Amino acid sequence: MAPKTTLNAKNLEVLGAERLAELLIEISTGSAATKRRLRIELAGTQSSAEVAREVTKRLSSIERSRSMINWRRVRALKSDLETQRHVIVDTIASSDPDEAVEVMWRFMGLARSIFERCDDGNGTIMDVFHQACVDLGTIASAARPDPRLLGEQTFRALQDNGYGQYDRLIENLSPALGAEGLDRLKSLFDDWAKAPVDTPTEAGPAVIGWASSGPVYEDEFNLRHRDRTIRSALEQIADAQGDVDAFIAQQSEQARSVPMIAAEIAQRLLKAGRAGEAWDAINRIEMKGRQSPFEWEKARLEVLEALGRRDEAQAFRWQCFEQSLNERHLRAFLKRLPDFDDLEAEENAFDCLSHFSDVHQALAFLLSWPALDRAATLIRARAAELDGDHYELLTPASEHLQEKYPLAATILLRAMIDFTLDRAKSSRYRFAARHLVQCERLSTKICDFDTFTSHPGYVADLRGKHAKKAGFWTAAGQ
Q1: Which among 14, 213, 269, 349 would be 20 to 30 A from 177, CA to CA?
Q2: How far is residue 402's CA from residue 410's CA, in Å, rounded to a whole number?
Q3: Up-side HSE of residue 475: CA atoms within 13 Å toward CB?
C-alpha cells in the first residue's frame, strides 16, 4: 500500500472539502492559469452554457492581446490553448454539441491574431490548431448542423487560411458536410475561381518583398495564394466525394509529369479500380536524370501488382534498390522470393553495396539492416573514401562496431580525427581528442592492424603533422 502521505486523490480526500478549497485558493494565488481553470470548473457545476461563456471570454482576451509571444512564452500559451480546447471537447461537447461547434470555430479563429505575433518556428502552436481542426470535425458530426451553412462557414474559414491552420479542414469536416455540404462548398470555390481579380491602383502594384528573380508584387502574391487555396480545396472536395476525375482535373499537364503528382493520381485511380489508367498516369513523369522519389516508386509497384505483372514488379524493386539502396525495396523483394532464394539474393545485395558509389550511404544501409560484419569489411576496403565530416554517421557507427570489430571502429574514429585536424576545426578539437582516447583503448583489442598503421604509429604521424595544435593535444591529455 502507498504511504498515507503520498499525493494521490484517495489520500487527499481525508482533508475534507473545506480544507481542500482553502488550499486551492492559496495555490492559485499568483497563478492566472490556475484561477481560470477553477472558474471553468465552477461554471461547469451550473451549465455547459456557463462553461462556454468562460471559455469564450478567455478566447476573446487572447485575441485582443497585442504583446509579442517569443519562444520563452510559447509553452505557456500552448498550455492555455490546450486547456480551452480540452474544456470544449470534454465538457461543452458532451452536453451541448451545437454550442461546442460554435466555440470551437471561435477557437480556430484565434489563429491569425496569434501567429501574427508568435514565434512558432517548431510548430508547437500550430499543432494545437491542427488538433482543434480534428476536434471540430468530430463535434460537428455529433451536432449535425445544416450542411449548406456548414459549407459556407468552411468556405469563409479557408479564405483566411494564411498560416495553414485550416489545411485539413475539409477532410475533417467531410462527414458532417455530407453530399449536400460538399456540393455547396464546391460551388462556392468554383464561383470564387471565376470572380474578377482586383487590378492595381494608378500608383502601380505594391512591392511587398524581394526574391532572387526580382520584386514580389502584392497583387501577384495574393493571386497565387488564391489559386493555390482554390486548387487545394477542390482537390480535397474531390477526394471526399470519391471523384477521381475531378481531382485529376485540378492538375495541369505539366503537374501530371511531376513524380509526386503522378503517384497521387495513380493511387486514386487504383482505388477506383482503374488500374490501366493508373499505369498510364504513373509513367507520364519527367525525371531529367534525377533519382525518382520513393513515393512514386511505391505507387508504380502497386500498379504493377494490381495489373498482375509481379515479375516486372520484382525487377523494378531490385532496380530501385540498386539505384537508391532503399531498405524497404530490398525487404519487399526478399519477402516475395521462395525459401533459400532470398539468402542468395541477400548476398547479391551485399555485393552490390560493396561497390556502391557513395560509401557513406552503403555504410548507413549495412548498419540499419543490420550486417555489422559486412559494414566492417566495407570500412576496411574503402577507408580512403571516408569523409570525417560525416560525424553524424561515423560516430554511432564506431560505437556499434567497437565491440566485435575494433579495427573498423578505429578507422572511422581516425577519419573524424584527421578531418578535424587537417581542416583546423578547433570547435571539434575536444571531440577529436575523445576519439583519440577511444582509439588507444580499442588498440588493445586489435591483434592485427593489417595494412593500417598501429596506434603508436598513428599518434606519431599526428604529432608530425599537427604538433602546433595545442588545444587538441591538451584535450587529449598528451
Answers
A1: 269
A2: 8
A3: 16
